[in-house]
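--- STAGE predict ---
source: upstream dedup step, 1 unique chain passed
mode: sequence only
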Amino acid sequence: MSSLFAPGADKVLTIPPAANFLRELAAALSGAEQARDDPGWLSEAIIYVPNQRSVRNLAQAFLNVASGRAMLLPNIRALGDLETDEPPPSAEAALADLPPVISAAQRIGQLTRLVLAYYSAQGTDLPASGALSAAQELARLLDQAALSGEADLSRLNEIPVDRDLAAHWERSASFLSIITQQWPARLDDAQAMDPYARRFAAAEALADHWRRAPPQAPVIIAGSTGATPASRVLMDVARQLPNGLVLLPGLDQDASGAMWERVLSTPSHPQFAMAQALRTLGLTRGDVGDWRATSIKTRLAGVAPVDPAIITGACGGARR
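--- STAGE serialize ---
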């Protein structure tokens, strides 16, 4: 276990789908040489997992591995919590200047009013139900743009359009000005941010904080597929920290090169998010260490494999 954070050790690993992901992680950290030498070492670690369910499950895994012994648990956080007003202690100062998240009800209400005002200016009497439906679609578009990490809605007018579709596109772009021009102004007035935009901003702030003051305690991103820009930002900085580690859930290291290329072009494939994350981070599958082949393999004799579907649900079913 002593080589878990040794110089030159792999910073990105994958735990196979047949393994009990959370128990493997808990056992490796609990049995690390640092943990044996310093009982408080583990309590200083920061571990990010995909969601609140996996926060609870990892805490329980540590308690199970302890087998009744007293244990100081690490700081286990959900990646999704970066959009809340409760940042992890190490990033409190870095996140202090971010506005709060606008509530879902307030966002839909404000967008609905903007839709009604738009159609009123066009001389159209739109029913409230129709305005609400349109507002919900605009909210989804805002979220999808934020989740892509690449879409810039402010540049919609620069999209080249076929002449036959120009008139239709002009009307569409005019309607979308609700979210490209009016909505940002409303957010500024309310001193608030959209949820996924704030999550990304929070991740960047935290990453910048870590770059300026690298934590000496372990920082681990565990179980995330890297499906969102926020998770990829934290993965990238964590693997550069002195005691940083990224643990991917069940990366397929056996697929042929041709098959892996098809994965990269198939968004519905279960490995697509991890494939895209590795590409974004400038890594290949060859850069990812195999948990089973490393010297940090756990000594959990008799731990039974579990159904991969259970692992997915416990440690990464959501987009994180």
